[in-house]
Amino acid sequence: MIKILTLIMLVAATACLSQGHSVPGFSGYGEIMMSRSGSTPSFETEGSTPRVTRRTRAEYREGKSPMVAAGLSLLLPGAGEFYGRDYLRSGIFFGIEVFTLSMWAYYNSEGNDKKDEYRSYADRNFDEDLYYGGLLGMSRNVREWLEGKNGDDFSAADYWNYDYFSNRDNWDYGTTDSLSVRDMLTLSFGYYNGLDITLLGGSAQFTHNLPATKTQQYYEMIGKYQQFSCGWNDFEGYVIEDGVIQTDSLYIKDSSNNDVLVVIPKFIEGEFNYGPNGYISPQVNFYEGLRDVTNQTYEKGQNFLMLTLLNHVASAFNASYVIKSRYQIDTAIQIENNDKSQKIGLDNYKLTYSVRW
């Protein structure tokens, strides 16, 4: 009787496992089918080779969850380890978090101070009026051409002056019938070169329009491009006496044939070389050095910020491992079919249930 009851329980357990019922968390066990021999039903195994069907399930003591631990550590490194009661690793990851964030804040603050330093230096030594005065001086070869266009609808004095050159909207035009600052520089360095002053270096370098506001781009451009060298107060192409840049008075006629005075920085006599190998501003090299140190300082801060993010990820993986290694319980159920090519019996099947932690 006990053997019959045991056989019935074995078949019932197999059927439940096959259909995903009765035994929580397990499904797909056993492939036992009914056959009929004569008028008495019997069970036969399918196939001719031994089969072992096994299914495991991981559970965790005290309701701990690797996903919860990983999520906690993603938010705050060490929190997942603390949740898993691994206080040593929790302290290590939290300590790394404090250290990397502190270093990021330090270098970011240091970078801000150095940025203020190089911007203050530029504000003291780069002058927009000086820059546009230099451009007027380099475009002086077109004055005669402009004056030849004077008439009822055109006045040369309206174009060759500080206000026109410093208006960012007049720097470059896409239409051919408009006269831009860049057009005058191109003509002065090109077709009319030598008419009043001989220029070297070419006009192709005048590609950037100085921003109207002192943005990050503004401070980058005045140090990076040769085009803006004439705006620094130690520019070697100007006549400087006792630390003061000398001026030159030039005139241009308006539509009424009146002379309009334009005062510009006085250029050094002879050929004026505004190319990369020509006149420079020594202050630019010092200024660019300040900017390089600032960028390096910010980069160090960004590196520590990246380490902070990596610490979050590493702590999340470690917290999950802590829960699995300390709290995991593996349960398994196994049905072994010996398949002795005979009608099913207790000797042909073995049911094993195991727990490991």
Can you tell me about this structure?
- The chain is an alpha+beta fold and 357 residues long.
- The protein has 3 domains: 2-62 and 330-356, no CATH class; 67-106 and 306-325; 127-231 and 236-279, no CATH class.
- 44% of the residues lie in helices and 17% in strands.
- The chain contains 10 helices and 11 strands.
- It has helices at residues 2-19, 66-75, 79-83, 87-125, 128-138, 143-147, 162-166, 181-189, 216-224, 282-327; strands at residues 33-37, 40-44, 51-60, 199-200, 240-241, 244-245, 247-253, 259-265, 272-273, 328-337, 349-356.
- The strands form 5 sheets. The chain has a 3-stranded antiparallel β-sheet with strand order 3-10-11.
- Helix 2 (66-75) packs antiparallel against helix 10 and helix 9 (216-224) packs across helix 10 (282-327).
- The model is unreliable at 1-48 (pLDDT under 50).
- Tell me the helix content: 40-55%
Number of E-type strands: 11
> Mean of residue pLDDT?
81
List the secondary-structure elements in sequence, H or E.
HEEEHHHHHHHEHEEEEEHEE
> What is the total domain count?
3
Q: Rg, please? A: 43 Å
Number of helices: 10
**Major sheet description:** 3 strands, antiparallel
Stretches with pLDDT under 50, minimum 5 residues:
1-48
Broad structural category: alpha+beta
Give the terminus-to-terminus CA distance.
36 Å
Fraction in beta strands: 15-25%
> Which shape, going by the Cα principal axes?
elongated
- With strands numbered from the N-terminus, the spatial order across the biggest sheet is 3-10-11
